[in-house]
Design goal:
Layout (H helix, E strand, L loop, with lengths): L1 H18 L2 E10 L3 H10 L1 H5 L4 E2 L6 E4 L4 E9 L3 E8 L6 E10 L3 E11 L4 H22 L2
Antiparallel strand pairs: 1-7, 2-3, 3-4, 4-5, 5-6, 6-7
Length: 148
């Protein structure tokens, strides 16, 4: 059942990416931490690890606001400890909105988060990819290393 759900999400994402803007893929490895813990941090300690105001209603259909409301969205699908599918849009003049799929998995030495973000305008690809690295992966790694 889990595999079918992930395959279904994969087809959904592929359909979106071919119909809309660019697709960004990224992964980050977090040694010595459980995938469930990363999932919990993302939903319940977002403000603490990013260092910016965030409000997340951690239920399917719940709202998402990060970086003082600069990023807003809705949580579409939550599989505890494994998967978050959400919309993410800017409240800036670009008004872009995309779909983000975060998959949390256990590795031999810790955990990994795999990201797919679709409907990213071509002229924002590098900025968005760099923002994930700087404001999420690096910040999250630092947070888990100092809050174990």
């Amino acid at each position: 059942m889990k595999i079918k759900a992930l395959i279904g999400i994969g087809f959904f994402v592929m359909g979106l990416s071919s119909a809309m803007g660019a697709t960004i893929q990224s992964s980050a490895v977090f040694p010595g931490v459980k995938a469930e813990r990363l999932y919990q941090i993302y939903l319940f300690e977002h403000e603490a690890f990013t260092g910016a105001p965030a409000t997340i209603s951690p239920v399917e259909g719940g709202s998402f606001s990060a970086f003082g409301g600069k990023e807003i969205g809705k949580l579409f699908r939550l599989v505890p400890g494994r998967l978050i599918v959400q919309s993410m849009g800017e409240t800036t003049e670009s008004g872009l909105e995309s779909t983000v799929v975060l998959t949390f998995s256990q590795t031999q030495d810790g955990a990994q988060i795999d990201l797919i973000q679709v409907n990213v305008p071509d002229d924002h690809q590098e900025e968005v990819k760099n923002n994930w690295q700087k404001y999420y992966w690096s910040a999250l790694l630092n947070y888990v290393q100092t809050h174990q």
